[in-house]
Amino acid sequence: MQILLDAIISALGIAIVAQYTWSLRAHFASAKVPPGTMLISAVVILSLASYLYLQWTVEQPMLAKAAGIVLMAGSLGLFWAAIFASREARLLLAFDEKKPHGLISIGPYKHVRHPFYLSYLTFWTGWTLATWHPLGLVPLAVIGCIYVTAALGEERKFENSPLADEYRNYRKRAGFLWPKFNG
């Protein structure tokens, strides 16, 4: 059963990273890949390798593996909900310097301003849990800092755009990286 769960976690992790990679070209609309996005890609590859190594070389409790699978699968659901909600918005890649040209407030965006980053963080948190090893916290911390930095940069771009007033109102209704549910 241990090997089967390790195989499921590994396959799910690789499949999710592949879907994230697909979205870079098929969903996001930046003219070129910003250096910050290239940094994220490099960290994702290193994190993927780290988690695969930990998954197969360290023994984990069954409950940690099961909880990790649930978080990883949930992250995928949130990722696709964000894709569907933003499919016509022509979103820019992380760290693209262009100003935003629209505001999305449907689907998961109704409750959280950065559902893509929340889905990514949920995924890596799930895999960290599934590895059940302190070294798994290192890639999570690094990638978490990068995602929060990217999200804060996007917040600043909205604040300095013609959408600033609309965005300030939106911030009152939707959480940053944690959903805000208003009645």
What does it look like?
- With 183 residues, the protein is mainly α.
- The chain has a single domain, classed as Four Helix Bundle (Hemerythrin (Met), subunit A), CATH 1.20.120.
- It has 6 helices and no strands.
- Helix 2 runs antiparallel to helix 5 and helix 3 packs antiparallel against helix 4.
- The model has no long low-confidence stretch (mean pLDDT 96).
Task: For the structure shown, list the relevant keywords.
elongated, mainly alpha, 183 residues
Summarize the structure.
This protein is 67% helix and 0% strand. The protein is built from six helices and no strands.
Instruction: Write down the domain tally.
Output: 1
Order of helical and strand elements: HHHHHH
The helix fraction, in percent, is: 55-70%
CATH architecture: Up-down Bundle
Structural class: mainly alpha
Number of alpha- plus pi-helical segments: 6
Rough outline: elongated
Architecture blueprint of SSEs:
Elements: H1 2-26, H2 35-57, H3 62-86, H4 115-131, H5 137-159, H6 164-173
